[in-house]
């Protein structure tokens, strides 16, 4: 058996099949804990996640002294017992993919991707946790994994027969899934333990534990990772999550203090208040503007305010723009909780998603003063721009684009499955959150159609977020454009 990939792996294998172990081979690490913790936290709640963390020393002891499978049984029970299967699947589909993709081993994935025949992935992790990403992102044909007992749509936390998918069970399950006398062309497994399933493969390779492999670069992901959910920014190992728990009460107090500072201080002191609490805000204005003050834009004669159009990172985007410009600016949004309205230091107005009603609502606001709109309609954490609604181009002929970047080290300021009313609160709980704003030159629509204006604004913001890298005119599969990685969509916005 070989411990490295020979020349045969560097040519196209369009019809060759492959069987590969997930943990330690396709993934860099064999540490299951972060994935179970994410399931426990996102599907079960913080108390379940805390219980899993407290049990980690015991599971580590079982793994070192007795059997790794015992530790796996314990983590499965604590993280899934009593949860709805649908909730576990939702977390596996929306939260886990980003962390799995970050752990992809570059060398083995490149081999895996070259094989165009049947693809088999073998793992001891529960099917409900790994199948969504393996089928959606890696185009796996068969997942050989552990099955869980389910009753009434809920996980019992117990493993179904034949048990944890390890050892000879992998051999039997893979042989049944393959269903033919012909052997699988390539097999790759971790060299930690014996891998009986590799005996079904013509060419067998072991990944040694000491191999210093690199993760797969993001721009080489098999499919773009555009949407993902979950509160945690980093992959939560035991020590990382322990630090987060210790920080949590301090973070709550800090978030409350930051909210009070934003509500109490006048607009011209907002930047100083943010800096005093560790909130870093940086802004860059067009060259024509003076650094000493906010950008001065000549608006259309019939309008008294400036319309700022920005990409949408968190609910705080309009607040930060108002803070930088040192004046109150109204913001329109498609969905805003009552709590967010109460703690917002600027006026907020809800849109109805009815173009006629929303347009009629926005025009008076712009007549009264400046207005901020996020035409994506929803937040997007990843370096992509979602399609811009052209509604803002109907309101005024003068638009000032703003490229927005938000950074947090512990918590994301957006969620889908969680409590959205806590989005801004979680972002403010970060030890040192940061915002970078780039005010671009005003755009005069003139005689251009609203769709041309929306596309143009999107491209300008995308180019600024993409820094100085070359722009590739490449369509994505769902009509979004990648900004920080500079994939800018050039297609027309559908009318």
From TrEMBL:
InterPro entries: HAD_RAM2/GPAT1-8, Plipid/glycerol_acylTrfase
One Pfam family named in its UniProt record: Acyltransferase
Keyword Transmembrane set for record: yes
Signal peptide region: none
Keywords assigned: Membrane, Transferase, Transmembrane, Transmembrane helix
One term under GO cellular component: membrane
Cellular compartments annotated: Membrane
UniProt domain Phospholipid/glycerol acyltransferase: residue ranges: 306-407
Main location: membrane
Annotated membrane topology: Multi-pass membrane protein
Family per similarity comment: Belongs to the GPAT/DAPAT family.
UniProt-recorded name of the protein: Phospholipid/glycerol acyltransferase domain-containing protein
